[in-house]
From TrEMBL:
The record marks C165 as: Transition state stabilizer. Keywords: Amino-acid biosynthesis, Isomerase, Methionine biosynthesis. InterPro entries: IF-2B-related, IF-M1Pi, IF_2B-like_C, Initiation_fac_2B_a/b/d, M1Pi_N, NagB/RpiA_transferase-like. It catalyses: 5-(methylsulfanyl)-alpha-D-ribose 1-phosphate = 5-(methylsulfanyl)-D-ribulose 1-phosphate. This is Methylthioribose-1-phosphate isomerase. Pathway: Amino-acid biosynthesis; L-methionine biosynthesis via salvage pathway; L-methionine from S-methyl-5-thio-alpha-D-ribose 1-phosphate: step 1/6. It comes from the Bacteria. GO terms for molecular function: S-methyl-5-thioribose-1-phosphate isomerase activity. The active site is at D245. Pfam families: IF-2B.
Length: 358
């Protein structure tokens, strides 16, 4: 069985709404959030009702369509200036995933290139672009799954695969990136046994990845993040695969906090560590990972994440939401255009292009 409710979808025409599956509440509650204005989309992204690099890009693109609604009865120029303002605003909702600014740049281009049309026609073009970003992401997920499963064709049946955070259908417009590879391996009767890091502090692994894997009847075992090295040492992990939020020109990759530690453990146990990500996750404007902005989130997520206090009141907390895995620890990056083994700038440049696909 696949995910019963879509991660996000647009309902209606240019005057429609953005409907999100509220990921803050999963897996105990399955509720929808209906966004009718830009502020609600900004909050949904910031508070992680919608999360995962590709999904927040798609949500922001639809958010621009909501922002356009208030200028439908004006002229083209006020509409364009409204779109500029909405794009700037939504870009501030989260800093690390480049898919957000990538999607907003596409929406901005549609608005800037409009001429000889009225606001309603521009709104139609914006909605068509948001829908295209969504549909292309779904296709990229499928292609990533296929390329990843081809790469791993020699993996033994029943191999242990460790993943961190959630890079599945909940994080994308399709069936995921890292999880797409795992789903495709399962489709090819490889019977992967997945070790799921719980992913402190917001438990995307425990709450979301296990939920997705169990819906598809894929064998999975939840572990505390701190158990990853132990299961590797016990010979239970043949491969690690995660998603990414931003990949620099040299292949350094930011992903959920804890990914770097997993990559270090994998290297020290001789286990291949792969990143699966669409080319929209690459940021070729930055040379290396030291320039990737790392989101800092509230300490409350660490000391009182799900309602119960777990540390003394007033304790100082440092809560970076992401970390950066250096390219030398990455065995390969699985993209929709193919696999970049042992990524370097020289290997990435021929495949990934600044404006998207070649
Ligand atoms: O804070 P989150 O839940 O948005 O973090 C998500 C991740 O780190 C994912 O691994 C990444 O966005 C890739 S999703 C295909």
């Amino acid at each position: 069985m696949t995910q019963p409710i879509p991660t996000l979808h647009w309902q209606g025409d240019i005057e429609g709404t953005l409907v999100l599956l509220d990921q803050k509440l999963l897996p105990t509650k399955t509720e929808l959030v209906v966004c009718t204005n830009v502020d609600e989309v900004w909050i949904a992204i910031q508070e992680l009702s919608v999360r995962g690099a590709p999904a927040i890009g798609i949500a922001a693109a639809y958010g621009v369509c909501l922002g356009a609604q208030v200028a439908l009865d004006t002229e083209l120029q006020p509409m364009q200036s409204r779109i500029r303002q909405v794009c700037d605003y939504l870009a501030e909702s989260r800093p690390t995933a480049v898919n957000l600014t990538w999607a907003l740049a596409r929406m901005r281009t549609v608005a800037e290139q409009a001429s000889d049309c009225n606001p309603r026609e521009l709104a139609e073009a914006l909605l068509a672009e948001a829908r295209a970003i969504h549909a292309e992401d779904a296709q990229m997920c499928a292609d990533i799954g296929r390329h990843g499963a081809d790469l791993l064709a020699e993996l033994p049946v029943g191999a242990g695969i460790l993943t961190h955070c959630n890079a599945g259908a909940l994080a994308t417009g399709g069936q995921g990136t890292a999880l797409s590879v795992i789903f495709e391996l399962a489709n090819r009767d490889k019977h992967p046994r997945v070790w799921v890091d719980e992913t402190r502090p917001l438990l995307q692994g425990a709450r979301l990845t296990t939920w997705e894997l169990m819906q598809r009847d894929i064998e999975c075992t939840l572990i505390c993040d701190s158990a990853a090295a132990h299961v590797m040492a016990a010979g239970q992990v043949q491969l690690v695969i995660t998603g990414a939020d931003r990949i620099a020109a040299n292949g350094d990759a930011a992903n959920k906090i804890g990914t770097y530690g997993v990559a270090v453990h994998a290297r020290s146990h001789g286990i291949p560590f792969y990143i699966a990500a669409p080319t929209s996750t690459f940021d070729l404007s930055i040379a290396n990972g030291s320039q990737i902005p790392i989101e800092q989130r509230s300490g409350q997520e660490v000391v009182q994440g799900f309602g119960t206090a777990t540390a003394p009141t007033g304790v100082a907390v440092y809560n970076p939401a992401f970390d950066m895995t250096p390219a030398e620890l990455i065995s390969g990056i699985i993209t929709e255009l193919g696999v970049i083994l042992s990524p370097t700038q020289e290997r990435i440049a021929p495949i990934v292009h600044p404006g998207g696909k070649k």
